[in-house]
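To fix ideas, we close by showing one paired sequence and structure record:
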Amino acid sequence: MAEASSLYKNQVMLLTQTFFIKDNKDELLLAAHKYDFDIRFYDQMRDFVQAVELSGDSTLFVIDLDVLYNMQDDMQQQRRQTMFLSDLLQRLPTHRQYIYLQTLRQGERFLLQQKLVDSNCLAYAEKPISNTVLVEKLFNLFGRHRRGESNAIMYLGDTLPVDIPMLNSNTVELLQVHEPRALHLRVRDTRPDIVLIDENHYLNTEALVRVLKKNIEFDPGQEIIMLQRHPTPAMTRRALDSGFDEVMTFTEPDILTRQLLNRIEKIRTSKDLISRDRATGLLNKIGLQKKAQEWIRKASQGGVPLAYGIIDIDKFKTINDTWGHYFGDIVIKRLSLVLSAQLGEQDLLSRFGGEEFVMIFWNCSLEQGRQKLDAMRESFTKVAFEVKPGEQKYFSFSGGMAGFPDYASENDLFLRADAMLYEAKQHGRNQICSQLPAT
């Protein structure tokens, strides 16, 4: 059993007796590490159960059903399979959810699927399965419960039609708007995932959806839904023809809330795929810009300071030219792990492009941010890279900082921090520069 490295935020525990992946185990681990999680392999039920009991929240639990035995065709063997599966399920801690891997023949048995999904099943998949596909699917499951993630629904209407506590428990914020002609401005500023419009407001201002969707910054992943209280086929046709993505009929607040949460879950998964850097699992440029705008809005409402930093690996072109792009990717990955390990719960981190990273420290002054980033710099300079057998190299990065509310927009923060990064590069690299704006 391999020991999990503390470098990785997330972990997979895999119970298997015969390795089943199409590719080899070492390649599976390398692929997992690129997505910032490690895999521990278990071949004994007792050890697996004990590890599950002691594990933290950033862990997925995977069980290869061949730890039981291969199913046969006759009915007697099918009954024995169900008995052994029941025994397995009874031994698993019930406060966890599990991912089951099964053969194609096992997957054809509906009763087996039913027993799995009724017994703390997070997901199931068929094997053999390639390293790349398995790692991507596990990464998506980690993404569902990623810390700090929140979503928003903007409602244009007078009477709240949803269950607010249910939304809050699922980290979904409800933003209410009363004035139709201000809707496009609020959507632009807050970028909610769903815009819910009461039918009465639509009837009074039918151009609402067209105004929203013709904005060049409109997010195509955003859903615009009309809420009908007195549905008619003619009204539904008009709404869909005018650009609504969906029409929902109001019955009870908890029912509508459940419908919206189901849609939010799909939006979360879809946006996670397009907002994350595939090599590191961090936010990419698109993901950062959306989250940065959300953080700035929340900081402004709460009077909270932010520290915005940009870093760049020193002489990265030389690293690539000397030891190759594959080695350069390793340097980037290791840096992402060093940075992630020192983030606070509400901080943001992005691989902005190439060897450039951006982070936003929540409730943090400019000087505090500079100190945090400088500590990250110190940590990275101590990481040894083996460039060839017996020879190690150490690398560094430079950084620039800007502070909110001294710079009030995401663009202004980026430009200021980038200018400070340039100063750091000009004054010898391997340092962090920040400067208050001139008064």
